């Protein structure tokens, strides 16, 4: 059970019931749910000049979602499901952006969104039990609840290369790609980074009429063919006929995807048997390949066989055996770094105008005015594309200067890594909820499934608190410690901690090494958070205001929180 404290109240009025940050998949649905289903007053603040979140910023050539389109969507609205028809097996960035604009307009959300506005600070006022949110236009607004919907990969990361700013050519980061496009013709181009973004942008740049493309790779990846294709009316009517079942299966699965794992393990199978099983899935392409063996991510023997199968495919595809060997991953297990999909990535290295620099052999020493100097050569470029990833999971949250009770900053609290209760809330930060925050399944799932789970849970919780005159809600320290310990315990049963990945915070030197998402499974996680809600928000301290006022009318007053 949660504990409820009754406190004396004083009159106060916040500007809004809820302020949300971020107009991507999460924030848009959160706004709809709170405004249209609960009738609350809501303001959504968005840094960009339009909706879209990730899909607004990542407009690099080749940007496409690795989740299949028919499951990379909202499931909450039958009309939207019927009206929207995806054109390809995987939705490209422009199509996802168009979809989010369609949903925004369909639900008439724009009027509650303040675009072109960045949150620069948020602080919790204990006496009023409300948040004050500051923005870069110098304004402040207040709300009882504060919901961050800022995405997990929204703070681009550029490594601090020696003399990084001395390069005088064009520089772009995939996560902040110019919306009016980039001209590649006749240029000498460098791409640094071979994660999911690099693997998508590299073949697209190579297709252009360029002079040369040089890829700087630190860790080779295991990329599986996407095998994208257009969806025709036949595909679509089959999806529509089975949509309820498909979406239910996605929501009840471990990764938010409705694909069955076919075999329990490869441990006792010969490599020949493994090849026979994997080959059709390789031909089918996509994440279905990853889901062939149930114990892929916990059993090194199974994983090594699947990893070896992918290595064989790379060696077969790349003509130059020396180049192929550089592209073959050897130092980590398949899927312990985010497993990318590809369209002609490995084939690109058979092109004359493409070369590869392995920076583990010849590290980047510094940037120079004309390009990049490695330990063995000077490489001259007109353009450098940084596909170097993100300050993932916590970067955007920590950069917003969030201050909870007693001026505690989120940065101080998470100095040794994120600590949350259920990946939704943090002790010391009452009335604040995070959609797909650290320690929730988020990036280890098909995101819209996790987003819907969170938005619905947060909305139900806020509705419950408002209906019951709860002025402040905060997870208990013990509940948070138990959840954090559980996260670590589950992660340690897997192979994930064996790789240097952004899941482990390892892509950024100063960050603490800790596994940041929750790997217990979307289905298990959903059951857990539902049980917490059913047990009257077990693990939270609730502060009840003593008031006769209608909580949706005149604002009830407030409360003094109990100390730790
Ligand atoms: O970033 P990343 P991303 N010198 O961090 C390299 C999602 N996403 O933007 O592996 C040289 O994965 C780094 O090397 P290493 C998806 O969840 C989804 O590609 O650290 N290289 C790595 O190769 C994804 O996982 C989609 O050794 C350096 C690369 O830069 C996440 O976003 C599409 C370096 C960074 O890879 C992030 O993907 C795109 C240095 N100093 C993204 N520092 C889809 O759904 C870093 N690197 C399709």
What do these coordinates show?
The longest helix is centred in the last third of the chain and has 21 residues, at 447-467. The protein starts with a strand and ends in a 19-residue tail after the last strand. With 564 residues, it is an alpha/beta fold. α1 runs parallel beside α13 (447-467). The chain has 15 helices and 21 strands. Strands 2, 3, 4, 5, 6, 7, 18 and 19 form an 8-stranded mixed beta sheet that branches. Strands 8-17-9-10-13 form a 5-stranded parallel beta sheet, covered by helices on one side. A 3-stranded mixed beta sheet has the order 1-21-20. The protein has helices at 25-37, 54-57, 78-83, 93-106, 196-207, 233-251, 271-284, 300-317, 321-327, 345-348, 395-398, 410-413, 447-467, 477-492, 522-534, and strands at 3-7, 16-21, 42-45, 113-114, 119-125, 130-135, 140-148, 170-173, 188-192, 212-217, 224-225, 341-342, 354-358, 364-368, 371-374, 378-380, 383-386, 402-403, 432-434, 470-475, 540-545. The structure holds 3-acetylpyridine adenine dinucleotide.
Return residue spans where pLDDT drops below 50 for at least 5 consecutive residues. 547-564
Q: Name every ligand kind in the structure.
A: 3-acetylpyridine adenine dinucleotide
Return the structural class: alpha/beta
Global Rg:
24 Å
What distance separates the N and C termini? Answer: 18 Å
- Number of E strands: 21
Count of DSSP-assigned helices: 15
Major beta-sheet overview: 8 strands, mixed
Helix content: 25-40%
Beta-strand residue percentage: 15-25%
The coarse overall form would be: globular
Overall mean pLDDT: 94
């Amino acid at each position: 059970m949660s504990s409820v404290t009754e406190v004396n109240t004083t009159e106060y009025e916040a500007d809004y019931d809820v302020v949300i940050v971020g107009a991507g998949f999460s924030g848009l649905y959160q706004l709809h749910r709170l405004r249209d289903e609960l009738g609350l007053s809501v303001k959504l603040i968005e840094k960009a000049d339009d909706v879209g979140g990730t899909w607004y910023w990542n407009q690099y050539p080749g940007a496409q979602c690795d989740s299949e389109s028919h499951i990379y969507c909202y499931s909450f609205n039958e009309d939207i499901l019927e009206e929207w028809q995806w054109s390809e097996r995987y939705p490209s960035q422009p199509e996802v952006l168009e979809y989010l604009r369609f949903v925004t307009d369909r639900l008439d959300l724009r009027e509650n969104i303040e675009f072109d506005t960045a949150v620069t600070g948020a602080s919790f006022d204990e006496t009023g039990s409300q948040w004050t949110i500051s923005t870069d236009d110098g304004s402040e607004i207040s709300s009882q609840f504060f919901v961050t919907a800022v995405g997990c990969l929204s703070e681009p990361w550029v490594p601090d290369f020696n003399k990084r700013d001395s390069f005088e050519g064009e520089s772009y980061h995939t996560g902040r790609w110019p919306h009016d496009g980039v001209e590649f013709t006749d240029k000498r181009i460098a791409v640094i980074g071979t994660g999911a973004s690099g693997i998508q942008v590299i073949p697209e740049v190579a297709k252009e009429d360029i002079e040369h493309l040089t890829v700087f790779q630190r860790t080779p990846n295991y990329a599986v063919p996407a095998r994208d294709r257009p969806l025709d009316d036949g595909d679509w009517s089959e999806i529509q006929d089975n949509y309820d079942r498909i979406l239910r299966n996605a929501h009840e699965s471990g990764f938010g995807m409705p694909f069955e794992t076919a075999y329990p393990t490869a441990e006792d199978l010969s490599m020949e048997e493994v090849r026979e099983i994997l080959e059709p899935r390789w031909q089918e392409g996509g994440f279905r390949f990853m889901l062939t063996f149930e114990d892929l991510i916990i059993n090194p023997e199974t994983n090594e066989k699947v990893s070896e199968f992918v290595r064989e495919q790379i060696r077969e595809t790349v003509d130059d055996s020396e180049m192929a060997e550089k592209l073959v991953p050897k130092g980590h297990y398949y899927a312990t770094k985010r497993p990318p999909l590809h369209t002609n990535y490995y084939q690109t290295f058979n092109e004359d105008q493409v070369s590869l620099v392995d920076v583990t052999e010849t590290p980047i020493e510094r940037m120079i005015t004309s390009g990049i100097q490695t330990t063995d050569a000077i490489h001259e470029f007109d353009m450098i594309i940084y596909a170097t990833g993100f300050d993932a999971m916590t970067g955007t949250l920590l950069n917003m200067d969030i201050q909870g009770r007693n001026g505690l900053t989120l940065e101080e609290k998470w100095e040794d890594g994120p600590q949350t209760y259920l990946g939704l809330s943090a002790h010391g930060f009452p009335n604040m909820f995070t959609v797909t925050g650290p320690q929730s399944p988020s990036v280890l799932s098909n995101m819209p499934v996790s987003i819907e789970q969170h938005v619905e849970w947060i909305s139900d919780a806020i509705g419950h608190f408002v209906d019951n005159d709860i002025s402040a809600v905060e997870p208990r320290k013990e509940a948070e410690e138990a959840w954090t310990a559980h996260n670590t315990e589950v992660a340690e049963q897997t192979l994930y901690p064996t790789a240097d990945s952004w899941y482990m915070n390892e892509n950024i030197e100063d960050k603490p090494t800790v596994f940041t998402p929750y790997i217990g499974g979307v289905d298990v996680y959903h059951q857990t958070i539902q049980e917490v809600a059913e047990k009257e928000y077990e693990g939270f301290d609730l502060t009840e205001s003593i008031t006769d006022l209608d909580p949706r009318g005149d604002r009830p007053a407030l409360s003094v929180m109990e100390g730790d």
